[in-house]
Amino acid sequence: MKLLKLYAALLFIALVTQVGFAQQSGKVYTVGAMNEMGKNNFQTQVWLDTLPDKSHLFGIGPYDRMKGEIMVFNGKPFYASALEKGKSVVGQSWDIRSPFFVYANVSEWEAFELSGDITALEDIQNKVATIAQKNGYDTKEPFPFKIIGSFDSLTTHIVTPRSADVEGYREDFKQQVFLFNNSSGSLLGFYSEKHQGIFTSSKSYIHVHYLSSDQTFMGHLDKINTAVKALTLFLPVRPKSYKTGFRVNDTDFSKGRLGNIQKVELNDLAKLHGHLCDGLVVGHLALQEALLILYPDGIIDRTNTRIVSKPSPCLTDAAVYLTGGRYQYNSFYISEDFDGLFTVQRIDNGKTVVVRMNQGVKPESINLLGTKAIKGELNSCELEGLKAMEDDFSEKLLRTDPKTIFTVAELTDFEWNPLLKNDFVKTDILNKDARKCSQ
Ligand SMILES: [Zn+2]
Ligand SMILES: [Zn+2]
């Protein structure tokens, strides 16, 4: 029995880790905080080796208990120290720790032209914000950036240990300054308007580290003065977001005529359903694909549509809400006897389609854990882990071309065969009394 439990726990950890690999490109994560580290004698808060996804990782922070600086650049972990006067050394290892660290995985960057001179860090901040805004980035959310090329003049520092119990401590030294003229390399920065004291100083929206192109020097950028002739700014390629929502056509009052056209969004559906979950996103997107084939003009006639749904609570809510189908008017029923999520019919011309989710789209781990949750086999923390996996999956669905998620096929031999059955299990309320993970 104990062994079984251990196996279940290991399986759970394995599944969660696996999903951890699907990080959203450019999403910024933080551990620890700049304004907290002095209060607890610069104790380290993260061991970089434990970060789940090191591919295309970019990050900055102090090295260990202020032994220097860290910059992870495209999955390469650089750390620099300046423990001896006038000297600095750079190494590479994942076996390093940091009292605060800000990082993001970015697999694709987009290049932007910089213009005008840069005479201060604020110029970098302003130019990056302006270019980001102009190109549709949400500057209210944190994001990483790179500036690569040649710099006329840079002032950098590497911090040094602050207490005698840390190797390399020298009284009255907090950092060593290093100046560069006509150097070339990469600046890695993180921009945020809401992380002052966390990973930017109280007066700035950016924190920037510099890595020389020969990788022999790395440090924190304090001052800059340069023309931008030979510099390029890079921002993470933004995840595509696909349009969701329908236009629907209904009657205009209790005895009214067709022609009341309204927009129905995913959030409206979430209110009917009770929460936004991956199943609801699947149902919404699947019906979007199916209904656009029945109504090529994009306006769904909810008085002219009937639907057969699989029994999941999410899918059935999506079905009745979006199509207007109702059992009592012979326009909705539930069946498990077909291959797909929904079968949808346009009543006036009889055209019928079935929509299926493609193999391999949904992570098998979510199904496995979902089955366990239904059997009451997940504890409260495991339930929260499952929720995080489902949320990740929802986000991924909304960033993926629905044509690659679903297949819609026309049915020529479809028979409308409404069954009334009321013993399906409403699986999304089975764990309603489970405690919070932290309790
Ligand atoms: Zn720094
Ligand atoms: Zn749901």
Automatic annotation (TrEMBL):
Keyword Lipid biosynthesis attributed: no
Pfam families: AAL_decarboxy, FmdE
UniProt-listed Enzyme Commission number(s): 4.1.1.5
Annotated ranges, domain Formylmethanofuran dehydrogenase subunit E: 273-407
Stretch forming the signal peptide: 1-22
SUPFAM superfamilies according to UniProt: AF0104/ALDC/Ptd012-like, FwdE-like
Root EC class: lyase
Chain segments annotated as coiled-coil in the UniProt record: none
Transmembrane segments: none
Annotated keywords: Acetoin biosynthesis, Decarboxylase, Lyase, Signal
Lyase is among the record's keywords: yes
Pathway listed: Polyol metabolism; (R,R)-butane-2,3-diol biosynthesis; (R,R)-butane-2,3-diol from pyruvate: step 2/3
GO MF annotation list: acetolactate decarboxylase activity
Catalytic activity: (2S)-2-acetolactate + H(+) = (R)-acetoin + CO2
Family per similarity comment: Belongs to the alpha-acetolactate decarboxylase family.
Name used for this protein in its record: Alpha-acetolactate decarboxylase
Organism of provenance: Maribacter cobaltidurans
